[in-house]
Amino acid sequence: MMTIEERGNEVVEEFELFDDWMEKYEHIIELGKDLPLIEEQYKTEENLIKGCQSKVWAWAEYQDGKINFTGDSEAIITKGIIALLIRVLNNSSPQDIVKADFEFIHQIGLQDHLSPTRANGLVGMIKRLKELALQNCE
Fold this sequence. Notes:
Layout: H1 4-15, H2 21-33, E1 56-63, E2 66-73, H3 76-89, H4 94-99, H5 103-108, H6 116-135
Antiparallel strand pairs: 1-2
């Protein structure tokens, strides 16, 4: 089974296949289509991620020592970004998620190609996913 770092490296390699940011955005949008969707009952105010311009929800389920996230967003780019984070983090231990450095985001240059509000949203998403993992650390 792959580690968070290995899945992050896989993402970096994928993004290296694209020549420009238009292609990378298209890839992010495609990733959003594969997002494990959050069930409607969890699309609540408390599962909304703070700091995002558009609505983004995240939910975590803890099973057999691993966390699996689901999520959704009204905006296609944001949906792709949460899908990217979930893909790298899913099926990991809460401890590994809390310790994750998200280096792959810097390596693909994502934060440099987001508007300030989306960049804040990205920080909010990472923070929320780590909080959800922490809640399951007991």
